[in-house]
Design a protein that fits this description.
The structure is a single chain. By secondary structure, this protein is an all-alpha fold. The protein has helices at 4-20, 40-60, 73-93, 98-125. It has one domain (4-20, 44-131). The chain has four helices and no strands. It is globular, with a radius of gyration of 15 Å. It starts with a helix and ends in a 19-residue tail after the last helix.
């Protein structure tokens, strides 16, 4: 299987993201912790941009700097999940060298996990903490 570790990491990102937004409603998208912090909508929009730019870079070897259109909360979530699947399809078809894979892990993939943590924190501050679980035994499998 091509890029098995990266694809598993991407599935982990998808699982944790869905956990973080599981209690999200439309109002949560505009929730602000203050002091110029990003809203969940802004964070997910940025996450989509990171993921989309990563996919374009891997598949077309060019960097897409164009910021994405801002959508409502549900649409941002749906678009991000769709882009995870798009990137997974690219990773399934294009073998990457280990140093390239390491850069993806330390760069965009780690960035996405950090932002998922921010969304989880904002959810708690918004009065809707995510349900705790042992993520090391979560039923995470590579996307179909």
């Amino acid at each position: 299987m091509e890029n098995e570790f990266l694809r598993h990491t991407l599935s982990t990102i998808a699982y944790r993201f869905q956990s973080a937004v599981s209690k999200a409603d439309t109002k949560f998208g505009n929730f602000s912790a203050g002091n110029g912090s990003r809203t969940p909508n802004e964070i997910i929009n940025h996450m989509y941009h990171v993921l989309h730019a990563t996919r374009v870079f891997i598949s077309e070897e060019r960097y897409n700097k164009q910021p994405p259109e801002k959508l409502n909360m549900r649409s941002e979530i749906d678009r991000f999940i769709a882009e995870i699947k798009n990137l997974d399809h690219v990773l399934a078809k294009k073998p990457l060298e280990i140093n390239y894979a390491k850069r993806l892990l330390q760069g965009p993939f780690s960035d996405l996990l950090t932002h998922i943590g921010q969304i989880s924190l904002l959810s708690r501050l918004n009065g809707k903490p995510i349900t705790g679980e042992d993520f090391s035994s979560a039923p995470i499998t590579i996307l179909p």
